[in-house]
Design a protein that fits this description.
Number of helices: 3
Distance between the termini: 24 Å
Low-confidence stretches: 5-13
Strand order of the largest sheet: 1-2-5-3-4
CATH architecture: 2-Layer Sandwich
Radius of gyration: 18 Å
Mean pLDDT: 91
Shape: globular
CATH superfamily: RutC-like
Number of strands: 5
Length: about 170
Amino acid sequence: MACGSPKPEKSAPAELYSYDVEERLKELGIELVGPELPPNLKLVQARRSGNLVYLSGNGPLPAGTLKGYYGKVGKDLTVEEGYAAARNTAIYQLKALQDEIGDLNKVVGIVKVFGMVNCEASFTDHPKVINGFSELLIDVFGERGKHARSAVGMTSLPWNIACEVEMIVEVAD
């Protein structure tokens, strides 16, 4: 292209889904809510850089009809309760993502999930807990919900929450 030539027009992105993601949430019985964060936190829930959205760590604080989960998984909570905590955290992250990009139909794919489980040193079922987060994303986004993931244990998390999960998402313009 010669210097000074007009740039080619950008075509609208093809539809990413054969269904409406927000309708899919309704079909799954999911209402997107986010927890009230403690005052004076010096962070944002999400930050977009180009076509990537980086979501801050979020955890299962109470919000709307979703209960909070506190304590160590494997000691104070069962693995099943940890799974439910991670699932609630996915709902909160989807709300934060929606607040940042406006329309979840713009999600090209979930790139990376980093899940932290509040547990004792001897606990080893971190993946089973964080599956609550991952499986919800796959239920909502299908193949685009599959992602690279880490699931690790922590000896403590803020406010004694059961888990905390960060996420990176690729979105369309």
